């Protein structure tokens, strides 16, 4: 099992000095995200998101369960993901060590951004009040990790939920009939909004010899090395309508109010473009399937 | 010839171990990897990557198309990262299954009084003096025959490209490497490369943007192949 190495001193110094010149190793500017690509699997609701070299697959499935007694008219939703050695050799499965911690953080962030933000109207998942509701399960697989799995994960969940269709269920006199996909057009989920997340990493430039640069530098969509070198990560999830869904800050560094507002401002500006890209891509794939006669 | 693990292969018996070929008295030579068996001798083809020394030229080996996990092999030049500093040496990560030992005296001109001072996290260019499956890998930063550094030692400044295809790194060391040629044709500034056959290449150049240009080109060649390094790519780099 390979250990996760600290970033070597040469690269650390080089990267920080280059950032002071507004340069990043992959040629991006500081507030530029990597290229986002979406690929669709065979079934509906199966999406693979590539963010640079990071790769996350999300698939959605649904089952019928009985609702929680305290919420008889609401469907259920769960997100599960596991970091395995498939993404990066130093991840180990099981409930120990740093991997479990990272995994928990990642799951929590996704849960906040997708489930608790109310992306899917859960009352629309009700079939028979108090008896039968849809339970939507999102399963994520991290296939390659080059940093910023959170943004890739949120994008994958968002796209998968937009892409997903559940079978139609009709209720006649308390009797429920589920129509298979080839019998009736499956129905999309009731989507309230499209969460788009942006992760900024803050790198301290003071610990190198040159102190005049001072302070910290924020980079959007950090890759693995940048994330490893950063002192804090700040994640903003918004909708294209400029509603803030979640803010999440990790790491010990203190961020000023101005810094937070800058990030939030940037995210709300950019969310529209990204949401459009996701919607267009999902719609294009759905259109393609209709021509193929699957849906 | 394509071989799979467990295939009997017909190679002249070699005294030294070759990665991918396992020889016992009862079974003869057996391949332990999937790949293309090259009989050695050097056909000059693209697949023949172990061309850097005459010794290797005559050795049969199994060529695996894409390998990023390094297996330590004696006489390889590698780049390692110091992960521990002990009283009389360093422990170095070269990216293989076990760490390697670098004796503090295995440097040019090093004596008990005058030892090099490497910090944890710094990079060294070294050659593997001992690789054995039951022993810790040993490194040295000098040619034991001459006692000279011959380019080995600490790598200062610059940038390390990591986790590269090992075949690409080996091809960089060839006399007529296509990647090296396109790098030299495209860039009109001086740059240095230290190539470790453990999938690491250290890049040094006068300015950071030049280092980044070389770094991105090597990374692109690694991901997509040398053929994508067209004029368009270098024009894009200039922007």
From TrEMBL, chain A:
Cell location: Cytoplasm; Nucleus
Domain (Exoribonuclease phosphorolytic) ranges: 32-167, 193-269
Organism of provenance: Wallemia ichthyophaga
One MF annotation (Gene Ontology) recorded for this entry: mRNA 3'-UTR AU-rich region binding
Signal sequence extent: none
Keyword DNA repair assigned: no
Lineage per the UniProt record: Eukaryota, Fungi, Dikarya, Basidiomycota, Wallemiomycotina
Regions that span the bilayer: none
Gene Ontology biological process terms from the UniProt entry: exonucleolytic trimming to generate mature 3'-end of 5.8S rRNA from tricistronic rRNA transcript (SSU-rRNA, 5.8S rRNA, LSU-rRNA); nuclear mRNA surveillance; nuclear polyadenylation-dependent rRNA catabolic process; rRNA catabolic process; TRAMP-dependent tRNA surveillance pathway; U1 snRNA 3'-end processing; U4 snRNA 3'-end processing; U5 snRNA 3'-end processing
Pfam families registered for this protein in UniProt: RNase_PH, RNase_PH_C
Entry protein name: Exosome complex component rrp45
Family (UniProt): Belongs to the RNase PH family.
GO cellular component: cytoplasmic exosome (RNase complex); nuclear exosome (RNase complex)
Record's keyword annotation contains Nucleus: yes
Keywords: Cytoplasm, Nucleus, RNA-binding
InterPro entries, sorted: ExoRNase_PH_dom1, ExoRNase_PH_dom2, ExoRNase_PH_dom2_sf, Exosome_comp_Rrp42_subfam, PNPase/RNase_PH_dom_sf, Ribosomal_Su5_D2-typ_SF, Rrp45
From TrEMBL, chain B:
Record carries keyword RNA-binding: yes
Protein name: Ribosomal RNA-processing protein 40
Positions of the UniProt region annotated as Disordered: 30-55
Stretches assigned to the K Homology domain: 164-208
Cellular component terms (Gene Ontology): cytoplasmic exosome (RNase complex); nuclear exosome (RNase complex); nucleolus
Chief location category: nucleus
Compositionally skewed regions (Basic and acidic residues) per UniProt: 45-55
Pfam family, one: KH_6
The organism's place on the tree of life at top rank: Eukaryota
Protein location: Nucleus, Nucleolus
UniProt record similarity statement: Belongs to the RRP40 family.
GO molecular function, one term: RNA binding
């Amino acid at each position: 099992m390979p250990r996760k190495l600290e970033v070597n001193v040469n690269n650390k110094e080089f990267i920080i000095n280059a950032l002071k010149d507004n340069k990043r190793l992959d040629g991006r500017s500081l507030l530029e995200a990597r290229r986002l690509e979406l690929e669709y699997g065979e079934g509906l609701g199966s999406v693979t998101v590539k963010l640079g070299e990071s790769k996350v697959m999300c698939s959605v499935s649904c089952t019928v369960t009985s609702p929680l007694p305290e919420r008889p008219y609401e469907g259920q939703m769960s997100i599960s993901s596991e970091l395995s050695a498939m993404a990066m050799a130093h991840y180990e499965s099981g409930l120990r060590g740093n991997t479990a911690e990272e995994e928990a953080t990642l799951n929590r962030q996704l849960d906040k951004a997708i489930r608790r933000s109310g992306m899917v109207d859960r009352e629309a998942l009700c079939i028979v009040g108090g008896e039968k509701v849809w339970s939507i399960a999102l399963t994520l697989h991290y296939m390659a990790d080059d940093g910023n799995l959170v943004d890739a994960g949120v994008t994958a969940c968002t796209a998968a939920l937009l892409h997903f269709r559940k079978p139609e269920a009709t209720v006649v006199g308390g009797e429920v009939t589920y129509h298979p996909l080839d019998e009736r057009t499956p129905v999309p989920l009731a989507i309230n909004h499209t969460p788009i997340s942006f992760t900024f990493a803050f790198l301290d430039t003071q610990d190198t010899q040159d102190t005049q640069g001072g302070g910290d530098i924020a980079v959007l969509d950090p890759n693995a090395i940048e994330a490893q070198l950063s002192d804090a990560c700040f994640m903003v999830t918004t909708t294209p309508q400029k509603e803030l869904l979640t803010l999440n800050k990790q790491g010990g560094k203190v961020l000023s109010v101005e810094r937070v507002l800058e990030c939030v401002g940037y995210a709300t500006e950019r969310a529209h473009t990204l949401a459009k890209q996701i919607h267009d891509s999902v719609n294009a794939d759905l259109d393609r399937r209709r021509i193929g006669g699957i849906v | 010839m394509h071989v799979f693990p467990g295939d009997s292969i017909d190679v002249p018996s070699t005294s030294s171990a070759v990665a991918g070929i396992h020889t016992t008295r009862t079974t003869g030579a057996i391949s332990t990897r999937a790949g293309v068996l090259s009989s050695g001798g050097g056909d000059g083809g693209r697949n023949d990557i172990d061309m850097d020394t005459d010794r290797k030229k005559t050795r049969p080996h199994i060529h695996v198309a894409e390998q990023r996990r390094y297996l330590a092999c004696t006489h390889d030049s590698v780049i390692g990262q110091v992960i521990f500093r002990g009283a009389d040496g360093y422990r170095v990560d070269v990216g293989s299954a076990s760490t390697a030992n670098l004796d503090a005296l295995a440097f040019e001109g090093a004596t008990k009084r005058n030892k090099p001072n490497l910090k944890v996290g710094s990079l060294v260019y070294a050659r593997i003096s001992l690789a054995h499956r039951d022993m810790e890998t040993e490194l040295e930063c000098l040619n034991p025959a001459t006692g000279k550094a011959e380019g080995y030692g600490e790598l200062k400044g610059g940038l390390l490209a990591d986790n590269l295809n090992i075949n690409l790194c080996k091809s960089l060391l060839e006399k007529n490497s296509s990647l090296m040629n396109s790098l030299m044709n495209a860039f009109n500034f001086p740059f240095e490369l230290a190539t470790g056959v453990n999938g690491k290449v250290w890049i040094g150049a006068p300015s950071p943007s030049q280092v980044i240009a070389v770094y991105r080109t090597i990374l692109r060649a690694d991901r997509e192949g040398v053929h994508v390094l067209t004029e368009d790519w270098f024009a894009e780099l200039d922007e």
